[in-house]
Amino acid sequence: MNKKRTRLEVIKDILEVIKSRNGRIKPTHILYKSNLSYVMMEDYLTELKEKGFITETRKDKGKTYQITEKGQEYLKKYSLVSEFTESFGLDQ
Amino acid sequence: MTHYIVPAWFFGIDIALELVFFIITLAVAIASYKIYRISREKSMQCFSASFFLISLSYLVWALINTFALSNLQEFPEKFSLQEILSISAMGFYMHILLLTVGFVTLVYAVLPKKSLRVYYLLLGLGLTAIVANTDKVITFRIVSVFLLSSIVYHFFVQWREHNNKNLLYTFVAFILLSFGNIEFALSESYYSAYVIGHLFELAAYLIILSNLVKITFIQKTPSNEQKKNKT
What we know:
heterodimer; A: alpha+beta; Arc Repressor Mutant, subunit A
């Protein structure tokens, strides 16, 4: 059985999906790749925008997302963040 | 207000230990702030703030003990006994305030749902109990044990859920901190309680420090990372 993903893992997965298709990814693609419900994905995208990890661009064909430098830094240091958060019981 | 009964041979050693607690908790505060800067997680921000307040409380405690010790030795050259007692009491109140706010912030950091109303209630109830009671040291220690027990429960649940070794160490560290506070509450009853309280806290903070060192400085080899990803 697969282990339930933590919040930080979900954030990492979304950022990785956006990074892999930088500047061209649409919400439906993120939804498909990140394995989340639509409502949950919207919540996460809003949070990531607020944190400055991603930016949203609105065009005629709809919304697209780009990863920012902060988002890149999060991906680079994910294992440290994850280890620290888990060790001090803040991973909820 | 009641103070601790301190064995004479322990004067000075307690100050050194309090400075050690200050340095360790400050290191945790700085490390967690760096993690907050990357993750922007609210709980990490609260965790960092709580350890910063706890570290300040130990610094204040060490400073007032140093002040009292140095002035009582030189007495009555600089200050009158009454002045020394008043300044020490004020410093001690500051220590109590900072440590209580620090523990409340830590409880708030580990809460799954954050609400400022909850923080306000926890802080208000904790501080009111201490301020309203004549025996502030014992009340402060009871409130601390109460807050720490909630943190211990949180770490127990987290450890059972994630089965992480570091989390187990953190859980043990907070049990030791709780025992330390129980000993401090009893320090009016018997001499060695103040010493034992410091030793429990030393053990707790050394465990937290070892956790911090393991996470921050021990580099993972790529093979270890791969193993972890496979499981």
